[in-house]
């Protein structure tokens, strides 16, 4: 990897690139659940993410390292069953998040074709993950430069959509009477919480950042604040410009469909291209982060190959494993289930990170109550999400149980096979 330090805008682009790709698959999902309450659902999910960034900013300044979340949990709770299980669950959640982005890439890509046969969507999904994997085999410097260009392009198109679309809003479609119940709005917020997750990737780049103590907090808060505003405005324009029935008819590529009356056919194609760039850049950023912390997880469990395999090769092994499993999930699960699984995983992880900062608040110079509040909110949100899944799609809950069960099982097997004392 390159030894060059990176500045504010490179990391800002990495954070935004890791988040905004979630807009395209999440928009149709949240409108289907929350109806005209989708903008409020985006704001609620963003607020939970914003509270959690406080813990991440404090922990990243105290531990500016490539391990990110893995290091935070190990430092706070020790290298035991609890932190080990959460670290594996984080990796599972990354795989689910990648699948979320790739589903959107396939849906928007197919919308450009006259034929919408499922085979074309699966082919695009597979090509996208292979392309992102190839890009991540290059140096970190290539990854950073590609993120800045891709993020600038897609943000320019989205801002154009908001600017032009504001004159097409029919405010009668946004009246309080048409807003669904608060229960549906909160359910929608929890299901698409995954669309905000990418800010966690900033922690993985902290070690390479110029003046992290000063820059990291600015990056975290500005990234989340900007994305919340962007998501809410796009949801407002989308709902105000088209009847909700038409939006739901094309929910997998809703933004491209709504762009037609606003920007014309050319504008719709432009939005589709932005979606393709956005989701592939989000996959790129996610794979970049997962490759860096996968070796950290291996080393924390004694799987350090030392001189046999260098650090870049170790990251590449994690990259290939992540890409392979993502190919399977992205091609077999529908987008609503993927969103629910990923959101549940990250809500649990973020609750643990908030608790980690609360436990180390003196060391990180933090206000303990903020992180305790964040942990409580994440756990309540997780409970609401599970309850909603039980009402609408109980099989998804069993997938969540399976994810947690496998993570615990792998840790237990590790301890028993190495004749180590099993500690919580």
Round the mean pLDDT to the nearest integer and report it: 82
Separation of the first and last Cα atoms: 35 Å
Largest sheet: none
Radius of gyration: 21 Å
Assembly level: single chain
Note poorly predicted spans. 305-309
| Shape, per Cα inertia axes | globular
Task: List the secondary-structure elements in sequence, H or E.
Answer: HHHHHHHHHHHHHHHH
Class by SSE composition: mainly alpha
Alpha plus pi helix count: 16
Beta-strand portion reads under 5%
Q: Tell me the total number of β-strands.
A: 0
Proportion in helices: over 70%
Protein model, in words:
The chain is mostly helical and 424 residues long. Helices cover 77% and strands 0% of the residues. The chain has 16 helices and no strands. The protein has helices spanning 8-20, 23-34, 38-62, 69-77, 81-110, 118-136, 140-165, 182-191, 212-241, 244-249, 254-300, 311-332, 335-359, 361-364, 368-392, 394-417. α1 (8-20) crosses α11 and α3 crosses α15 (368-392). The longest helix has 47 residues, at 254-300. Residues 305-309 have low confidence and may be disordered.
Output the keywords.
single chain, 424 residues, 16 helices
In short:
This protein is 77% helix and 0% strand. It has 424 residues and is mainly alpha-helical. The longest helix is centred in the middle third of the chain and has 47 residues, at 254-300.
């Amino acid at each position: 990897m390159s030894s060059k330090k990176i500045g504010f805008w490179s990391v800002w682009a990495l954070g935004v690139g890791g988040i905004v790709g979630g807009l395209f698959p999440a928009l149709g999902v949240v409108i289907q659940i929350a109806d005209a309450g989708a903008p409020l659902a985006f704001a609620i999910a963003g607020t939970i993410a914003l509270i959690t960034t406080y813990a991440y900013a404090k922990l990243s300044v105290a531990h500016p390292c490539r391990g990110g979340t893995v290091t935070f949990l190990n430092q706070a709770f020790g290298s035991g069953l609890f932190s080990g299980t959460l670290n594996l669950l984080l990796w599972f959640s990354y795989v689910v998040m990648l699948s979320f982005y790739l589903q959107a890439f396939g849906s928007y890509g197919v919308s450009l074709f006259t034929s919408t046969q499922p085979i074309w969507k699966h082919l695009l999904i597979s090509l996208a993950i292979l392309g992102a994997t190839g890009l991540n085999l290059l140096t970190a410097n290539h990854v950073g430069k590609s993120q800045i260009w891709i993020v600038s392009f897609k943000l320019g198109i989205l801002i154009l959509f908001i600017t032009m679309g504001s004159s097409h809003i029919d405010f009668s479609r946004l009246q309080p009477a048409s807003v669904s119940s608060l229960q549906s709005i909160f359910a929608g917020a929890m299901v698409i919480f995954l669309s905000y997750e990418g800010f966690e990737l900033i922690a993985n780049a902290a070690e390479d950042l110029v003046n992290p103590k000063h820059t990291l907090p600015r990056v975290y808060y500005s990234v989340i604040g900007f994305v919340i505003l962007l998501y809410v405005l796009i949801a407002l324009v989308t709902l105000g410009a088209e009847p909700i029935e038409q939006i739901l008819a094309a929910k997998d590529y809703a933004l491209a469909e709504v762009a037609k009356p606003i920007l014309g056919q050319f504008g719709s194609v432009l939005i589709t291209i932005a979606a393709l760039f956005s989701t592939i850049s989000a996959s790129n950023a996610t794979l970049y982060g997962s490759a860096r912390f996968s070796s950290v997880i291996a080393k924390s469990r004694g799987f350090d190959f030392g001189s046999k395999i260098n650090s870049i090769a170790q990251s590449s092994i994690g990259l290939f494993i992540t890409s392979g499993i993502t190919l399977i999930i992205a091609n077999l699960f529908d987008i609503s289930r993927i969103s629910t699984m990923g959101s549940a995983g990250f809500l649990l992880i973020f609750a643990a990170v908030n608790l980690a900062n609360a436990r180390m608040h003196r060391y990180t110079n933090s206000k303990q109550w903020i992180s305790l509040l964040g942990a409580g909110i994440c756990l309540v949100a997780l409970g609401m999400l599970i309850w909603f899944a039980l009402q609408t799609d109980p099989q998804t809950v069993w997938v969540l149980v399976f994810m947690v069960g496998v993570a615990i099982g792998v840790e237990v097997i590790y301890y028993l096979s190495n004749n180590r004392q099993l500690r919580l």
